[in-house]
Amino acid sequence: MADEHAIEQALAVFSVETPSWGYGDSGTRFGVFPQPGRPRDVFEKLEDAAEVNRLTGAAAGVALHFPWDAVADYAELRACAEGHGLHIGAVNPNLFQDDDYKLGSITNPDARVRRKALAHLLECVEIARALGSSAQSLWFADGTNYAGQDDIGGRRERMLDCLMELYAALPYEQELLVEYKPFEPAFYATDIPDWGSALLICQQLGERARVLIDLGHHLHGTNVEQIVSQLAAVERLGGLHFNNRKYADDDLIVGSTNPFELFLIFCELIGSGRALPRLTIDQSHNVEAKVEAMVLSVVNLQEAYAKALRVDRVALAARQLEGDVLGGHEVLLAAYNSDVRPLCAKVREARSAAADPIAELRSSGYLAQAAERRAATAPITRKART
Ligand code: PSV
Ligand code: MN
Fold first, then answer.
1. Is residue 384 part of a domain?
2. Full-prediction pTM beyond 0.85?
3. Would 229 be classed as within a structural domain?
4. Cα(238)–Cα(347) distance, rounded to whole angstroms?
5. How far does the centroid of ligand 1 lie from the alpha carbon of residue 244, in Å?
6. Ligand 1 centre and the CA of 109: distance in Å?
7. Nearest ligand to the C-alpha atom of residue 183
8. Enclosing domain of residue 356
9. Mean pLDDT, the chain, as a whole number?
């Protein structure tokens, strides 16, 4: 059994970024069901993020999405975050909603569209600088729906040209995270379909370009923890986007469908012997209560990490050396089946957070108060936005 004190120390500094887009209105293409009191601008999203951090003690970073979170005064936004005890996490440029991007953004056959996409990426570098963010987190919806629609190799070259310009403009403190996804919204050839493609791009760009793994971005049966291990080994694991899925990119609460996979991912992160990379929740809540969903996701992450910390690595290595196939598996199961809830509650309390964050959220009246306050005021962004 691993040393409990060391586990507590590791849990005490565990932290995950929550996504601004997970707090606001979102849904599916079939409908959006607005929730009473939902935040209407980035300032109100920060209020909700601060509540998640207050309850869990492990969510001080907030990832932002632009232009969704655009404001006129980034110094004001940064000060607002800091006033809540938060900091701005990764900046996520959005190159998937503008009409111009119908045939792609940085891969578009039209040079004008590519320049527009690059200009947005460069704008996000400046936004990150103003907000004190240390990462650009890139996901491209680019791809084709039909064979012959565009030249696959040509698209890759156009993409690399743009990304090389972006990389050259990155200040030293910013890293570049590159996400991949096999399909959706493109259904024939997504331009960065898998971790190998993302890695090749990163290797071409430079050492501050790393791959970001989103748990919802794999075909069924993919061994995600093995990808974690491979990328960590070559120091190209930039981070993870946590969510859970049953079918495709479902963006459900972390650990709700496949908690064992989550545990195994943390086992590989710890086993790599490196510091944890940037960890971010990437969820979009449709019918579930948004703040509660976020709190539960952080709690599930804390518990998965705690279980992985409990793996008896000496015993595991011994079983593996002996060729004891199920012996090693049993060592993992012993940690996975242990009850880490009291330990996590203790660590949260030591961080001045809640022993039982969900119960505390429900009894605190936070949501009702936020709804009342927001109903009585105009969103701040309307005033601040250009
Ligand atoms: C795309 O599915 C994605 O995972 C990317 O990370 C985006 O930035 C995020 O979702 C929100 O749209
Ligand atoms: Mn993602």
1. no
2. yes
3. yes
4. 26
5. 13
6. 23
7. 1
8. 4-376
9. 96
